[in-house]
Amino acid sequence: MPIGWTDEQDGGTYRLKERDDEALFGYQVGPHSWKKYLHPPRRRLWQAEMRDNHMVIVDDEPDYPRYAFFGVRSCELNAITIQDTVFTSGPYVDIGYRERRKQAFIVVVNCVEAGGTCFCASMNTGPQAEQGFDLALTELLDPNQHYFVVDIGSKAGAAIIKQVPHQQAQEQEHMAAQQAVAQAARQMGRTLDTRDIKMLLYNKYEHPRWDEVARRCLSCTNCTLVCPTCFCVSIEEQTDLNGQTAERWQRWDSCFTADFSYIHGGSVRSSASSRYRQWLTHKLASWIDQFGTSGCVGCGRCITWCPVGIDLTEEVRALRDGEPRIGVAIPTLDAV
Amino acid sequence: MSTAVVDPMRSVVYEVQRIRKETSDTFTLELHSTNGSNDFPFAAGQFNMLYVFGVGEIPISISGDPSKHRSLIHTTRAVGLVTGAMRQLKRGDSIGVRGPFGSHWPVEHATGYDVVIVAGGLGLAPVRPALYHILHHREKYGNVVLLYGSRTPNDILFRREVEKWRARLDVDVHVTVDRAIHPWRGNVGVVTRMIPKAPFDPLNTVAFICGPEIMMRFTVLELQKRGVTTDKIFISMERNMKCAVGFCGHCQWGPNFVCKDGPVFDYASVKHFFEKREI
User: Fold this and answer.
1) Mean pLDDT for all residues in chain A
2) Class of domain B12-101
3) Is B12 on the interface with A (CB under 8 A)?
4) What is the distance between the alpha carbons of residues B100 and A47, in angstroms, rounded to a whole number?
5) How confident is the model at residue B35 (pLDDT cuts 50, 70, 90)?
Protein backbone atom coordinates (compact mmCIF):
# COMPACT_ATOMS: atom_id res chain seq x y z
CA MET A 1 0.00 0.00 0.00
CA PRO A 2 1.28 3.50 -0.83
CA ILE A 3 1.70 4.62 2.78
CA GLY A 4 3.32 8.02 2.98
CA TRP A 5 2.40 9.02 -0.54
CA THR A 6 -0.22 11.19 -2.11
CA ASP A 7 -0.72 12.93 -5.40
CA GLU A 8 -1.26 16.44 -6.59
CA GLN A 9 -3.48 16.91 -9.63
CA ASP A 10 -4.39 19.81 -11.85
CA GLY A 11 -4.98 20.40 -15.56
CA GLY A 12 -2.25 18.44 -17.33
CA THR A 13 -0.48 17.78 -14.03
CA TYR A 14 -0.02 14.70 -11.91
CA ARG A 15 2.72 14.69 -9.27
CA LEU A 16 3.43 12.20 -6.51
CA LYS A 17 4.16 13.79 -3.19
CA GLU A 18 5.17 12.48 0.17
CA ARG A 19 2.74 12.78 3.03
CA ASP A 20 3.64 12.59 6.66
CA ASP A 21 0.93 10.32 8.00
CA GLU A 22 0.15 6.61 7.80
CA ALA A 23 -2.87 6.87 5.45
CA LEU A 24 -3.34 3.83 3.21
CA PHE A 25 -5.68 5.55 0.78
CA GLY A 26 -4.39 9.10 1.00
CA TYR A 27 -4.41 9.66 -2.75
CA GLN A 28 -6.90 10.29 -5.52
CA VAL A 29 -7.62 8.32 -8.68
CA GLY A 30 -4.72 7.61 -11.03
CA PRO A 31 -4.88 7.24 -14.82
CA HIS A 32 -6.15 3.67 -14.78
CA SER A 33 -9.73 2.92 -13.97
CA TRP A 34 -11.34 -0.47 -13.35
CA LYS A 35 -12.60 -0.28 -16.93
CA LYS A 36 -9.48 -2.09 -18.07
CA TYR A 37 -10.59 -5.22 -16.23
CA LEU A 38 -14.30 -5.28 -17.04
CA HIS A 39 -13.97 -3.86 -20.56
CA PRO A 40 -10.40 -4.87 -21.49
CA PRO A 41 -8.31 -2.69 -23.83
CA ARG A 42 -7.79 -5.65 -26.15
CA ARG A 43 -9.90 -8.74 -26.39
CA ARG A 44 -10.24 -11.49 -28.95
CA LEU A 45 -13.87 -11.97 -29.91
CA TRP A 46 -13.52 -15.12 -31.98
CA GLN A 47 -11.34 -16.83 -34.54
CA ALA A 48 -12.06 -18.34 -37.92
CA GLU A 49 -10.17 -21.09 -39.68
CA MET A 50 -10.11 -22.21 -43.28
CA ARG A 51 -10.70 -25.93 -43.51
CA ASP A 52 -10.93 -27.38 -47.05
CA ASN A 53 -11.73 -23.94 -48.38
CA HIS A 54 -14.57 -23.53 -45.93
CA MET A 55 -14.62 -21.06 -43.11
CA VAL A 56 -15.22 -22.41 -39.63
CA ILE A 57 -15.85 -20.11 -36.69
CA VAL A 58 -13.90 -21.15 -33.61
CA ASP A 59 -15.18 -19.98 -30.26
CA ASP A 60 -12.69 -19.39 -27.48
CA GLU A 61 -13.19 -21.23 -24.23
CA PRO A 62 -14.94 -18.72 -22.00
CA ASP A 63 -12.44 -17.43 -19.47
CA TYR A 64 -13.92 -14.98 -17.05
CA PRO A 65 -11.56 -14.23 -14.18
CA ARG A 66 -13.15 -13.50 -10.83
CA TYR A 67 -12.05 -10.05 -9.83
CA ALA A 68 -11.99 -8.34 -6.47
CA PHE A 69 -11.57 -4.59 -6.89
CA PHE A 70 -10.01 -3.08 -3.81
CA GLY A 71 -10.07 0.66 -3.32
CA VAL A 72 -12.80 1.63 -5.78
CA ARG A 73 -13.78 5.27 -5.35
CA SER A 74 -17.38 6.34 -5.48
CA CYS A 75 -16.94 8.07 -8.84
CA GLU A 76 -15.53 4.85 -10.24
CA LEU A 77 -18.32 2.74 -8.83
CA ASN A 78 -20.72 5.05 -10.62
CA ALA A 79 -18.68 4.66 -13.80
CA ILE A 80 -19.02 0.88 -13.53
CA THR A 81 -22.78 1.25 -13.11
CA ILE A 82 -22.85 3.44 -16.22
CA GLN A 83 -20.96 0.85 -18.26
CA ASP A 84 -23.34 -1.83 -16.93
CA THR A 85 -26.13 0.09 -18.65
CA VAL A 86 -24.14 0.45 -21.89
CA PHE A 87 -23.25 -3.22 -22.16
CA THR A 88 -26.06 -5.14 -20.50
CA SER A 89 -29.30 -3.16 -20.51
CA GLY A 90 -30.20 -3.13 -24.20
CA PRO A 91 -31.57 -5.77 -26.54
CA TYR A 92 -27.97 -6.88 -27.14
CA VAL A 93 -25.63 -7.87 -24.33
CA ASP A 94 -21.83 -7.89 -24.21
CA ILE A 95 -21.56 -11.35 -22.72
CA GLY A 96 -17.91 -11.05 -21.69
CA TYR A 97 -18.59 -7.83 -19.82
CA ARG A 98 -21.65 -9.28 -18.15
CA GLU A 99 -19.82 -12.38 -16.94
CA ARG A 100 -16.80 -10.47 -15.60
CA ARG A 101 -19.05 -7.95 -13.94
CA LYS A 102 -21.39 -10.49 -12.36
CA GLN A 103 -18.54 -12.06 -10.42
CA ALA A 104 -16.72 -8.89 -9.39
CA PHE A 105 -16.33 -8.22 -5.66
CA ILE A 106 -16.12 -4.52 -4.98
CA VAL A 107 -14.50 -2.86 -1.99
CA VAL A 108 -15.10 0.85 -2.06
CA VAL A 109 -13.01 3.45 -0.32
CA ASN A 110 -14.96 6.60 0.38
CA CYS A 111 -12.83 9.64 -0.29
CA VAL A 112 -11.91 11.77 2.73
CA GLU A 113 -9.82 14.12 0.61
CA ALA A 114 -10.61 15.47 -2.85
CA GLY A 115 -8.10 16.16 -5.58
CA GLY A 116 -7.48 19.23 -7.67
CA THR A 117 -9.48 17.97 -10.64
CA CYS A 118 -12.26 16.19 -8.72
CA PHE A 119 -15.89 17.23 -9.19
CA CYS A 120 -17.91 14.17 -8.20
CA ALA A 121 -19.96 16.34 -5.84
CA SER A 122 -21.25 18.24 -8.92
CA MET A 123 -22.16 14.99 -10.68
CA ASN A 124 -23.87 13.42 -7.62
CA THR A 125 -21.49 10.47 -7.87
CA GLY A 126 -19.58 10.90 -4.63
CA PRO A 127 -17.55 11.19 -2.53
CA GLN A 128 -19.78 8.81 -0.50
CA ALA A 129 -20.66 5.56 -2.25
CA GLU A 130 -24.36 4.94 -1.74
CA GLN A 131 -24.90 1.46 -3.19
CA GLY A 132 -23.56 -1.23 -5.47
CA PHE A 133 -20.58 -2.29 -3.36
CA ASP A 134 -19.82 -5.34 -1.28
CA LEU A 135 -17.92 -3.35 1.29
CA ALA A 136 -17.29 0.38 1.66
CA LEU A 137 -14.45 1.62 3.81
CA THR A 138 -13.92 5.07 5.23
CA GLU A 139 -10.38 5.57 6.45
CA LEU A 140 -10.03 7.63 9.61
CA LEU A 141 -6.80 8.89 11.03
CA ASP A 142 -6.94 10.76 14.27
CA PRO A 143 -4.06 11.42 16.63
CA ASN A 144 -4.98 8.45 18.78
CA GLN A 145 -6.03 5.82 16.32
CA HIS A 146 -6.07 4.75 12.66
CA TYR A 147 -9.18 2.78 11.75
CA PHE A 148 -11.79 2.09 9.06
CA VAL A 149 -15.52 2.45 9.30
CA VAL A 150 -16.98 -0.26 7.11
CA ASP A 151 -20.40 -0.33 5.45
CA ILE A 152 -21.51 -3.79 4.43
CA GLY A 153 -23.31 -3.83 1.08
CA SER A 154 -23.82 -7.51 0.38
CA LYS A 155 -23.86 -11.00 1.85
CA ALA A 156 -20.47 -11.66 0.29
CA GLY A 157 -19.18 -8.52 1.96
CA ALA A 158 -20.59 -9.60 5.32
CA ALA A 159 -18.92 -12.99 4.97
CA ILE A 160 -15.54 -11.34 4.46
CA ILE A 161 -15.96 -9.01 7.42
CA LYS A 162 -16.69 -11.98 9.65
CA GLN A 163 -13.15 -13.12 9.06
CA VAL A 164 -11.59 -9.72 9.74
CA PRO A 165 -11.00 -8.49 13.30
CA HIS A 166 -13.61 -5.82 13.85
CA GLN A 167 -15.94 -4.26 16.31
CA GLN A 168 -19.35 -2.67 16.04
CA ALA A 169 -18.93 0.99 15.07
CA GLN A 170 -20.15 3.50 17.60
CA GLU A 171 -22.27 6.54 16.83
CA GLN A 172 -19.20 8.72 17.26
CA GLU A 173 -17.20 6.75 14.69
CA HIS A 174 -20.08 6.89 12.19
CA MET A 175 -20.19 10.63 12.70
CA ALA A 176 -16.44 10.95 12.19
CA ALA A 177 -16.68 9.00 8.93
CA GLN A 178 -19.55 11.14 7.67
CA GLN A 179 -17.75 14.32 8.56
CA ALA A 180 -14.56 13.19 6.84
CA VAL A 181 -16.44 12.44 3.62
CA ALA A 182 -18.40 15.68 3.87
CA GLN A 183 -15.07 17.46 4.22
CA ALA A 184 -13.94 15.91 0.92
CA ALA A 185 -17.16 17.10 -0.75
CA ARG A 186 -16.26 20.65 0.27
CA GLN A 187 -12.72 20.34 -1.12
CA MET A 188 -13.58 19.56 -4.74
CA GLY A 189 -10.97 21.11 -7.01
CA ARG A 190 -13.49 21.65 -9.77
CA THR A 191 -17.23 22.23 -10.10
CA LEU A 192 -19.60 21.70 -12.99
CA ASP A 193 -22.96 23.40 -13.24
CA THR A 194 -25.18 20.64 -14.63
CA ARG A 195 -28.44 22.62 -14.79
CA ASP A 196 -30.21 21.80 -18.09
CA ILE A 197 -26.87 20.64 -19.41
CA LYS A 198 -28.34 18.42 -22.12
CA MET A 199 -30.12 21.21 -23.94
CA LEU A 200 -27.25 23.58 -23.21
CA LEU A 201 -24.96 21.38 -25.32
CA TYR A 202 -27.54 20.45 -27.96
CA ASN A 203 -28.14 24.13 -28.50
CA LYS A 204 -24.45 24.98 -28.84
CA TYR A 205 -23.48 22.84 -31.81
CA GLU A 206 -22.36 25.93 -33.67
CA HIS A 207 -20.66 27.82 -30.85
CA PRO A 208 -17.26 29.37 -31.68
CA ARG A 209 -15.81 27.84 -28.52
CA TRP A 210 -15.42 24.48 -30.32
CA ASP A 211 -12.91 26.02 -32.71
CA GLU A 212 -11.14 27.69 -29.82
CA VAL A 213 -10.71 24.48 -27.84
CA ALA A 214 -9.72 22.63 -31.03
CA ARG A 215 -6.74 24.94 -31.40
CA ARG A 216 -5.42 23.52 -28.14
CA CYS A 217 -6.66 19.93 -28.48
CA LEU A 218 -4.03 17.54 -29.85
CA SER A 219 -6.59 14.79 -30.62
CA CYS A 220 -4.26 12.55 -28.62
CA THR A 221 -7.13 10.44 -27.22
CA ASN A 222 -5.79 10.54 -23.64
CA CYS A 223 -9.11 11.80 -22.27
CA THR A 224 -11.05 8.92 -23.76
CA LEU A 225 -8.54 6.30 -22.63
CA VAL A 226 -8.46 7.48 -19.01
CA CYS A 227 -12.22 8.08 -18.88
CA PRO A 228 -13.85 5.32 -16.84
CA THR A 229 -17.06 5.42 -18.90
CA CYS A 230 -15.79 5.89 -22.47
CA PHE A 231 -16.64 2.56 -24.09
CA CYS A 232 -15.93 2.95 -27.80
CA VAL A 233 -14.02 0.18 -29.50
CA SER A 234 -12.84 -0.80 -32.90
CA ILE A 235 -12.79 -4.34 -34.21
CA GLU A 236 -9.83 -5.46 -36.22
CA GLU A 237 -8.84 -8.41 -38.29
CA GLN A 238 -5.64 -10.24 -37.50
CA THR A 239 -4.42 -12.99 -39.80
CA ASP A 240 -1.57 -15.46 -39.78
CA LEU A 241 0.99 -15.53 -42.56
CA ASN A 242 -0.31 -18.63 -44.31
CA GLY A 243 -3.84 -17.27 -44.45
CA GLN A 244 -5.46 -20.19 -42.66
CA THR A 245 -6.46 -18.47 -39.43
CA ALA A 246 -8.06 -15.12 -38.82
CA GLU A 247 -8.86 -13.52 -35.50
CA ARG A 248 -11.36 -10.79 -34.65
CA TRP A 249 -9.88 -8.47 -32.04
CA GLN A 250 -11.71 -5.74 -30.20
CA ARG A 251 -9.65 -2.82 -28.91
CA TRP A 252 -10.41 0.49 -27.29
CA ASP A 253 -10.92 3.24 -29.81
CA SER A 254 -11.43 6.96 -29.52
CA CYS A 255 -13.78 9.43 -31.16
CA PHE A 256 -10.79 11.80 -31.38
CA THR A 257 -9.25 9.96 -34.32
CA ALA A 258 -10.25 10.89 -37.88
CA ASP A 259 -10.51 7.19 -38.72
CA PHE A 260 -13.26 6.72 -36.13
CA SER A 261 -15.97 8.24 -38.32
CA TYR A 262 -14.54 7.22 -41.71
CA ILE A 263 -16.99 6.18 -44.39
CA HIS A 264 -16.12 5.87 -48.06
CA GLY A 265 -14.93 9.21 -49.27
CA GLY A 266 -13.74 10.59 -45.95
CA SER A 267 -14.31 11.13 -42.26
CA VAL A 268 -17.62 12.51 -41.08
CA ARG A 269 -15.83 14.42 -38.34
CA SER A 270 -12.73 15.63 -40.12
CA SER A 271 -12.06 18.65 -37.91
CA ALA A 272 -10.70 18.51 -34.37
CA SER A 273 -13.45 20.88 -33.25
CA SER A 274 -16.16 18.49 -34.40
CA ARG A 275 -14.41 15.64 -32.61
CA TYR A 276 -14.09 17.52 -29.33
CA ARG A 277 -17.73 18.59 -29.71
CA GLN A 278 -18.74 14.97 -30.26
CA TRP A 279 -16.89 13.82 -27.16
CA LEU A 280 -18.16 16.51 -24.81
CA THR A 281 -21.70 16.48 -26.19
CA HIS A 282 -21.83 12.71 -25.94
CA LYS A 283 -20.44 12.65 -22.43
CA LEU A 284 -22.70 15.34 -20.99
CA ALA A 285 -25.78 15.45 -23.24
CA SER A 286 -26.53 12.63 -25.69
CA TRP A 287 -25.50 10.05 -23.07
CA ILE A 288 -28.58 11.15 -21.12
CA ASP A 289 -30.80 10.40 -24.13
CA GLN A 290 -29.04 7.12 -24.80
CA PHE A 291 -28.66 5.65 -21.34
CA GLY A 292 -30.63 7.81 -18.92
CA THR A 293 -27.66 9.28 -17.02
CA SER A 294 -24.75 11.57 -17.66
CA GLY A 295 -21.68 9.87 -19.07
CA CYS A 296 -19.48 11.89 -16.71
CA VAL A 297 -18.80 10.93 -13.10
CA GLY A 298 -16.56 13.87 -12.21
CA CYS A 299 -13.39 11.83 -11.60
CA GLY A 300 -11.34 14.56 -13.27
CA ARG A 301 -9.03 12.18 -15.14
CA CYS A 302 -9.61 13.83 -18.52
CA ILE A 303 -8.46 17.13 -17.03
CA THR A 304 -5.41 15.72 -15.26
CA TRP A 305 -4.22 13.62 -18.18
CA CYS A 306 -4.86 16.09 -20.96
CA PRO A 307 -1.33 17.03 -22.06
CA VAL A 308 -2.45 20.59 -22.71
CA GLY A 309 -4.71 20.82 -19.68
CA ILE A 310 -8.08 21.19 -21.43
CA ASP A 311 -10.66 21.25 -18.66
CA LEU A 312 -14.19 20.17 -19.52
CA THR A 313 -15.63 22.12 -16.59
CA GLU A 314 -14.06 25.25 -18.05
CA GLU A 315 -15.34 24.42 -21.54
CA VAL A 316 -18.89 23.99 -20.25
CA ARG A 317 -18.59 27.29 -18.40
CA ALA A 318 -17.47 28.99 -21.60
CA LEU A 319 -20.39 27.49 -23.53
CA ARG A 320 -22.79 28.57 -20.82
CA ASP A 321 -21.52 32.12 -20.68
CA GLY A 322 -21.10 32.74 -24.40
CA GLU A 323 -23.82 33.43 -26.87
CA PRO A 324 -24.31 31.05 -29.78
CA ARG A 325 -23.19 32.30 -33.16
CA ILE A 326 -26.50 31.33 -34.65
CA GLY A 327 -29.35 31.93 -32.28
CA VAL A 328 -31.96 29.34 -33.16
CA ALA A 329 -34.57 28.17 -30.73
CA ILE A 330 -34.72 24.41 -30.88
CA PRO A 331 -37.61 22.41 -29.46
CA THR A 332 -36.64 19.88 -26.83
CA LEU A 333 -35.76 16.57 -28.37
CA ASP A 334 -38.15 14.76 -26.07
CA ALA A 335 -40.99 16.55 -27.77
CA VAL A 336 -40.35 15.22 -31.27
CA MET B 1 -30.72 -11.28 -18.72
CA SER B 2 -30.59 -15.01 -19.16
CA THR B 3 -27.37 -16.75 -20.06
CA ALA B 4 -29.01 -18.02 -23.24
CA VAL B 5 -28.40 -14.69 -24.96
CA VAL B 6 -26.57 -15.23 -28.24
CA ASP B 7 -23.28 -13.42 -28.67
CA PRO B 8 -24.26 -10.63 -31.06
CA MET B 9 -20.66 -10.27 -32.23
CA ARG B 10 -20.32 -13.79 -33.58
CA SER B 11 -20.79 -14.43 -37.28
CA VAL B 12 -22.65 -17.33 -38.84
CA VAL B 13 -21.09 -18.90 -41.90
CA TYR B 14 -22.97 -18.56 -45.19
CA GLU B 15 -22.01 -19.61 -48.68
CA VAL B 16 -21.91 -17.51 -51.82
CA GLN B 17 -24.54 -18.89 -54.16
CA ARG B 18 -24.17 -16.30 -56.87
CA ILE B 19 -22.36 -13.06 -57.44
CA ARG B 20 -23.78 -10.81 -60.11
CA LYS B 21 -22.11 -7.79 -61.56
CA GLU B 22 -24.65 -4.95 -61.62
CA THR B 23 -22.65 -2.04 -63.03
CA SER B 24 -18.95 -1.41 -63.49
CA ASP B 25 -18.40 -1.07 -59.75
CA THR B 26 -21.48 -2.57 -58.08
CA PHE B 27 -22.43 -6.19 -57.55
CA THR B 28 -25.06 -8.33 -55.87
CA LEU B 29 -24.26 -11.21 -53.57
CA GLU B 30 -26.72 -14.05 -53.15
CA LEU B 31 -25.97 -16.05 -50.02
CA HIS B 32 -27.20 -19.38 -48.74
CA SER B 33 -26.96 -20.76 -45.27
CA THR B 34 -24.61 -23.72 -44.79
CA ASN B 35 -26.81 -25.49 -42.26
CA GLY B 36 -29.75 -26.09 -44.59
CA SER B 37 -32.00 -23.52 -42.94
CA ASN B 38 -32.50 -20.65 -45.30
CA ASP B 39 -35.02 -18.83 -43.22
CA PHE B 40 -33.68 -15.34 -42.70
CA PRO B 41 -36.52 -13.02 -41.74
CA PHE B 42 -35.75 -9.33 -42.10
CA ALA B 43 -37.62 -6.09 -42.58
CA ALA B 44 -37.14 -3.80 -45.58
CA GLY B 45 -34.33 -1.36 -44.83
CA GLN B 46 -32.39 -3.51 -42.37
CA PHE B 47 -28.75 -4.45 -42.84
CA ASN B 48 -26.31 -7.25 -42.07
CA MET B 49 -22.67 -7.27 -41.07
CA LEU B 50 -20.83 -9.26 -43.73
CA TYR B 51 -17.43 -10.73 -42.94
CA VAL B 52 -14.79 -11.76 -45.46
CA PHE B 53 -12.24 -14.16 -44.03
CA GLY B 54 -8.89 -12.52 -43.42
CA VAL B 55 -10.08 -9.10 -44.56
CA GLY B 56 -12.76 -7.65 -42.33
CA GLU B 57 -16.40 -6.93 -41.68
CA ILE B 58 -18.72 -4.18 -42.91
CA PRO B 59 -22.41 -3.24 -42.77
CA ILE B 60 -24.36 -3.79 -45.98
CA SER B 61 -28.08 -3.29 -46.39
CA ILE B 62 -30.21 -6.18 -47.52
CA SER B 63 -31.45 -5.57 -51.06
CA GLY B 64 -33.61 -8.67 -51.54
CA ASP B 65 -37.30 -9.38 -51.22
CA PRO B 66 -38.39 -9.63 -47.57
CA SER B 67 -41.15 -12.09 -48.46
CA LYS B 68 -38.65 -14.54 -49.96
CA HIS B 69 -36.41 -16.17 -47.41
CA ARG B 70 -34.71 -18.59 -49.75
CA SER B 71 -31.57 -16.56 -50.12
CA LEU B 72 -30.02 -13.50 -48.65
CA ILE B 73 -29.33 -10.70 -51.14
CA HIS B 74 -26.97 -7.78 -50.70
CA THR B 75 -25.91 -5.19 -53.24
CA THR B 76 -22.90 -2.98 -52.74
CA ARG B 77 -20.18 -1.03 -54.45
CA ALA B 78 -16.55 -2.16 -54.49
CA VAL B 79 -14.94 0.87 -52.87
CA GLY B 80 -12.91 -0.41 -49.94
CA LEU B 81 -10.80 -3.29 -48.75
CA VAL B 82 -13.69 -5.51 -47.72
CA THR B 83 -16.02 -4.80 -50.63
CA GLY B 84 -13.06 -5.19 -52.99
CA ALA B 85 -12.38 -8.65 -51.58
CA MET B 86 -16.08 -9.44 -51.59
CA ARG B 87 -16.28 -8.83 -55.31
CA GLN B 88 -13.60 -11.49 -55.84
CA LEU B 89 -15.62 -14.17 -54.04
CA LYS B 90 -16.79 -17.18 -56.07
CA ARG B 91 -19.73 -19.52 -55.82
CA GLY B 92 -19.23 -21.80 -52.84
CA ASP B 93 -16.95 -19.40 -50.96
CA SER B 94 -17.66 -18.78 -47.30
CA ILE B 95 -18.81 -15.48 -45.88
CA GLY B 96 -19.73 -14.52 -42.32
CA VAL B 97 -23.13 -12.98 -41.60
CA ARG B 98 -24.46 -11.22 -38.51
CA GLY B 99 -27.90 -9.65 -38.48
CA PRO B 100 -30.37 -8.44 -39.40
CA PHE B 101 -29.87 -5.16 -37.58
CA GLY B 102 -31.52 -1.79 -37.35
CA SER B 103 -34.80 -0.08 -38.04
CA HIS B 104 -36.81 -0.49 -41.24
CA TRP B 105 -38.88 1.46 -43.74
CA PRO B 106 -42.35 1.89 -42.20
CA VAL B 107 -44.18 0.06 -44.99
CA GLU B 108 -47.02 -0.94 -42.65
CA HIS B 109 -47.62 2.61 -41.47
CA ALA B 110 -47.57 3.84 -45.06
CA THR B 111 -50.63 1.84 -46.08
CA GLY B 112 -53.37 4.07 -47.39
CA TYR B 113 -50.87 6.74 -48.40
CA ASP B 114 -49.17 7.60 -51.65
CA VAL B 115 -45.59 6.39 -51.42
CA VAL B 116 -42.74 8.30 -53.00
CA ILE B 117 -39.38 6.56 -53.06
CA VAL B 118 -36.47 8.80 -53.94
CA ALA B 119 -33.16 7.01 -54.47
CA GLY B 120 -29.75 8.14 -55.57
CA GLY B 121 -27.10 5.81 -56.96
CA LEU B 122 -26.52 2.79 -54.78
CA GLY B 123 -29.31 4.10 -52.54
CA LEU B 124 -31.72 2.09 -54.64
CA ALA B 125 -30.44 -1.10 -53.00
CA PRO B 126 -31.68 -0.40 -49.43
CA VAL B 127 -35.11 0.77 -50.64
CA ARG B 128 -35.66 -2.10 -53.09
CA PRO B 129 -37.01 -4.39 -50.32
CA ALA B 130 -39.59 -1.71 -49.47
CA LEU B 131 -40.61 -1.45 -53.11
CA TYR B 132 -40.95 -5.24 -53.31
CA HIS B 133 -43.18 -5.20 -50.26
CA ILE B 134 -45.32 -2.39 -51.61
CA LEU B 135 -45.72 -4.08 -55.00
CA HIS B 136 -46.71 -7.36 -53.31
CA HIS B 137 -49.41 -5.44 -51.46
CA ARG B 138 -50.10 -2.91 -54.18
CA GLU B 139 -53.81 -2.54 -53.36
CA LYS B 140 -53.01 -1.21 -49.89
CA TYR B 141 -51.25 1.91 -51.17
CA GLY B 142 -52.21 4.99 -53.14
CA ASN B 143 -49.94 6.21 -55.92
CA VAL B 144 -46.50 4.63 -55.90
CA VAL B 145 -43.70 6.72 -57.32
CA LEU B 146 -40.04 5.82 -57.74
CA LEU B 147 -37.69 8.67 -58.54
CA TYR B 148 -34.21 7.44 -59.23
CA GLY B 149 -31.05 9.32 -60.08
CA SER B 150 -27.74 7.84 -61.12
CA ARG B 151 -24.45 9.27 -62.33
CA THR B 152 -24.66 8.01 -65.92
CA PRO B 153 -26.95 5.64 -67.82
CA ASN B 154 -24.33 2.92 -67.31
CA ASP B 155 -24.60 3.34 -63.53
CA ILE B 156 -28.31 2.61 -63.34
CA LEU B 157 -28.64 -0.10 -60.73
CA PHE B 158 -30.97 -3.08 -61.30
CA ARG B 159 -31.59 -1.69 -64.79
CA ARG B 160 -33.71 -4.52 -66.14
CA GLU B 161 -35.85 -4.50 -63.03
CA VAL B 162 -36.23 -0.71 -63.14
CA GLU B 163 -37.41 -1.04 -66.74
CA LYS B 164 -39.88 -3.74 -65.71
CA TRP B 165 -41.28 -1.53 -62.95
CA ARG B 166 -41.50 1.34 -65.39
CA ALA B 167 -43.60 -0.81 -67.71
CA ARG B 168 -46.18 -1.40 -64.98
CA LEU B 169 -49.33 0.69 -65.06
CA ASP B 170 -49.57 0.97 -61.30
CA VAL B 171 -46.14 2.48 -60.57
CA ASP B 172 -44.66 5.77 -61.74
CA VAL B 173 -40.96 5.34 -62.36
CA HIS B 174 -38.80 8.29 -63.35
CA VAL B 175 -35.08 7.96 -63.90
CA THR B 176 -32.58 10.76 -64.34
CA VAL B 177 -28.82 10.82 -64.85
CA ASP B 178 -26.25 13.45 -63.90
CA ARG B 179 -24.39 13.04 -67.17
CA ALA B 180 -26.03 11.66 -70.30
CA ILE B 181 -24.10 9.54 -72.73
CA HIS B 182 -25.27 8.23 -76.09
CA PRO B 183 -27.93 6.84 -76.59
CA TRP B 184 -29.65 8.13 -73.41
CA ARG B 185 -32.93 9.86 -74.21
CA GLY B 186 -34.24 10.23 -70.68
CA ASN B 187 -34.01 12.93 -68.02
CA VAL B 188 -30.74 14.66 -67.27
CA GLY B 189 -30.18 16.45 -63.97
CA VAL B 190 -30.46 15.87 -60.27
CA VAL B 191 -33.20 13.64 -58.90
CA THR B 192 -34.78 16.48 -56.92
CA ARG B 193 -35.88 18.13 -60.15
CA MET B 194 -38.41 15.37 -60.69
CA ILE B 195 -40.18 16.01 -57.39
CA PRO B 196 -42.30 19.07 -58.34
CA LYS B 197 -44.15 17.18 -61.07
CA ALA B 198 -44.28 13.73 -59.52
CA PRO B 199 -47.83 12.40 -59.20
CA PHE B 200 -48.54 12.25 -55.47
CA ASP B 201 -50.84 14.01 -53.05
CA PRO B 202 -48.44 15.85 -50.72
CA LEU B 203 -50.81 15.83 -47.79
CA ASN B 204 -51.24 12.07 -47.99
CA THR B 205 -47.77 10.95 -48.90
CA VAL B 206 -45.06 8.99 -47.17
CA ALA B 207 -41.58 9.43 -48.63
CA PHE B 208 -38.62 7.05 -48.36
CA ILE B 209 -35.29 8.61 -49.28
CA CYS B 210 -31.97 6.88 -49.67
CA GLY B 211 -28.82 8.25 -51.22
CA PRO B 212 -25.89 10.54 -50.48
CA GLU B 213 -26.62 12.97 -47.62
CA ILE B 214 -26.50 16.00 -49.89
CA MET B 215 -29.08 14.40 -52.18
CA MET B 216 -31.29 13.53 -49.21
CA ARG B 217 -31.02 17.08 -47.89
CA PHE B 218 -32.26 18.63 -51.13
CA THR B 219 -34.89 15.94 -51.58
CA VAL B 220 -36.33 16.79 -48.16
CA LEU B 221 -36.44 20.47 -49.13
CA GLU B 222 -38.27 19.75 -52.39
CA LEU B 223 -40.75 17.45 -50.65
CA GLN B 224 -41.37 20.10 -48.00
CA LYS B 225 -41.97 22.66 -50.76
CA ARG B 226 -44.73 20.41 -52.04
CA GLY B 227 -46.18 20.22 -48.55
CA VAL B 228 -45.05 16.82 -47.33
CA THR B 229 -44.56 17.07 -43.57
CA THR B 230 -41.28 15.98 -41.96
CA ASP B 231 -42.90 13.23 -39.90
CA LYS B 232 -43.88 11.53 -43.17
CA ILE B 233 -40.38 11.70 -44.62
CA PHE B 234 -37.99 8.83 -43.87
CA ILE B 235 -34.28 8.74 -44.62
CA SER B 236 -31.68 5.99 -44.39
CA MET B 237 -28.37 7.06 -42.85
CA GLU B 238 -24.90 5.65 -43.23
CA ARG B 239 -22.10 5.83 -40.68
CA ASN B 240 -18.96 3.91 -39.79
CA MET B 241 -19.97 0.77 -37.91
CA LYS B 242 -17.88 -1.88 -36.24
CA CYS B 243 -20.40 -3.75 -34.13
CA ALA B 244 -23.97 -2.97 -35.29
CA VAL B 245 -25.35 -3.39 -31.76
CA GLY B 246 -24.49 -0.12 -30.02
CA PHE B 247 -21.24 -1.18 -28.32
CA CYS B 248 -18.56 0.30 -30.57
CA GLY B 249 -19.82 3.88 -30.58
CA HIS B 250 -18.65 4.61 -34.12
CA CYS B 251 -22.04 5.25 -35.71
CA GLN B 252 -23.20 7.84 -33.20
CA TRP B 253 -25.14 10.68 -34.73
CA GLY B 254 -26.35 13.09 -32.08
CA PRO B 255 -28.13 10.93 -29.50
CA ASN B 256 -28.72 8.19 -32.06
CA PHE B 257 -26.81 5.06 -32.79
CA VAL B 258 -27.36 4.65 -36.53
CA CYS B 259 -26.97 0.87 -36.09
CA LYS B 260 -29.81 0.36 -33.64
CA ASP B 261 -31.89 3.55 -33.71
CA GLY B 262 -31.50 3.73 -37.51
CA PRO B 263 -30.50 3.33 -40.24
CA VAL B 264 -34.04 4.44 -41.14
CA PHE B 265 -35.14 7.58 -39.30
CA ASP B 266 -38.19 9.75 -39.57
CA TYR B 267 -36.89 13.11 -40.60
CA ALA B 268 -38.77 15.09 -37.95
CA SER B 269 -36.85 13.42 -35.12
CA VAL B 270 -33.39 13.89 -36.63
CA LYS B 271 -33.84 17.23 -38.35
CA HIS B 272 -31.80 19.03 -35.69
CA PHE B 273 -28.75 16.85 -36.41
CA PHE B 274 -29.22 16.27 -40.12
CA GLU B 275 -28.96 19.94 -40.89
CA LYS B 276 -25.60 20.34 -39.17
CA ARG B 277 -22.15 19.44 -40.39
CA GLU B 278 -19.77 16.90 -38.87
CA ILE B 279 -22.19 15.65 -36.21
Assistant:
1) 94
2) mainly beta
3) yes
4) 21
5) confident
